[in-house]
Specification:
The chain contains twelve helices and eight strands. A six-stranded antiparallel β-sheet has the order 4-5-6-7-3-8. The chain has three domains: 7-85, no CATH class; 99-219, TATA-Binding Protein, CATH 3.30.310; 230-311, no CATH class. It is of the alpha+beta class. Strand 6 and strand 7 form a beta hairpin. The longest helix is centred in the last third of the chain and has 18 residues, at 239-256.
Length: 322
């Protein structure tokens, strides 16, 4: 229905979803009350699944038949509202909850430890890593730092590798920094397997993402988020860097349209858009992406109409209030 409404339009945006009551009289429809929280566009995805089930059970959905589902609809709204109001869960590049772990072992020999752990760095060879090492007079490693990495990425098909942590070997100490509990458990197993009784520990310091952000704010109480230096801003805005970032972003979205997306029920967008309901789901998700944008220092937000063109969807005009 197209309704007459005024006050809500001052705060709502295109794509918002309201839980409310529409009262129609002859050719006029009014919105009489609504839930206090408007749902974001991607909340439309589970609602479309619900609509599909209702049509299967009821055939045509009418105002009368909706009464049969009034409690279900109400419960669904409260569940989606709780989800919309829930704090953002920070995750690493593998989709694991963000939690910082520093693991420290005492070791017998830094050179032996390096040779045992060097293959944990997928994207560099042992000889390449060794070039940046501090050596003793006999040519043995005393201090070295390198990445723990793996091939590919579980969430980003176009990534060649994923950095899982940072490994530092210095004299009699081995330190590994990771950003999830799962990675912490995995590196403990790797060190035990590769070094055995030549590594003692580990001692572990764990810090939540919230604690890390709070500490950063305390270090910079007036600035909050650290502002890039003029040199960094100039570098980020240079034509070469902007072109590199544009190409990287294009490649990511080229891959995205053919990937299985959890928010879409592990379906591929390129397949979903073949049906009317599928197009609605994909469009709802793209609209949510548009809202999130990106940090201003990285330039203009990506134009989601490019993704729509890849999927054969019509472009969406950005509506601005006068």
């Amino acid at each position: 229905m197209e309704v007459f409404e005024q006050s809500g339009s001052e705060s709502l945006r295109v794509g918002d979803i309201l839980y409310g009551r529409v009262v129609a009289f002859e050719n006029v429809a009014l919105l009489i009350g609504s839930g206090a929280v408007a749902l974001p566009p991607d909340s439309k995805i589970p609602l479309l699944d619900m609509r599909k089930g209702m049509r299967k059970d009821l055939g045509q959905i009418t105002a009368i038949s909706l009464l049969l589902f009034d409690e279900v609809l109400r419960e669904t709204y409260f569940a989606l509202r709780q989800q919309a109001l829930a704090p953002l869960t920070l995750q690493n590049t593998d989709g694991e909850p963000l939690e910082f772990h520093t693991l420290t072992w005492k070791i017998d020999s830094p050179d032996d430890a390096f040779r045992a752990l060097a293959s944990l760095c997928h994207h560099m060879s042992e000889s390449e890593i060794r070039k940046d090492a501090t050596l003793d007079d006999a040519g043995h490693v005393r201090r070295i730092e390198f990445s723990w990495s793996k091939a590919k990425n579980s969430l980003h098909a176009d990534w060649d590798n994923t950095v899982l942590g940072r490994i530092l070997i210095a004299d009699s100490k081995l330190t590994v920094e990771v950003n999830s509990g799962k990675r912490a458990e995995r590196i403990r197993g790797e060190v035990a397997k590769r070094l055995g009784g030549h590594a003692f520990g580990p001692s572990i310091v764990t810090k939540s993402a919230e604690d890390s952000l709070r500490e950063q704010d305390e270090r910079e109480p007036s600035a909050g988020r650290k502002k890039p230096s003029p040199q960094d801003e100039a570098f980020l805005r240079s034509p070469e860097v902007q072109e590199f970032m544009r190409q990287r972003e294009e490649a990511q979205w080229d891959a995205w349209v053919s990937e299985r997306i959890p928010a879409l029920g592990n379906r591929r967008p390129i397949q979903l858009v073949k049906t009317k309901e599928g197009r609605e789901k994909v469009e709802a998700l793209l609209l949510s992406f548009e809202r999130r944008g990106q940090p201003p220092e990285f330039g203009e937000p990506y134009d989601m109409n490019r993704v729509r063109a890849r999927l054969g969807l019509p472009p969406r005009e950005t509506l601005r209030r006068p």
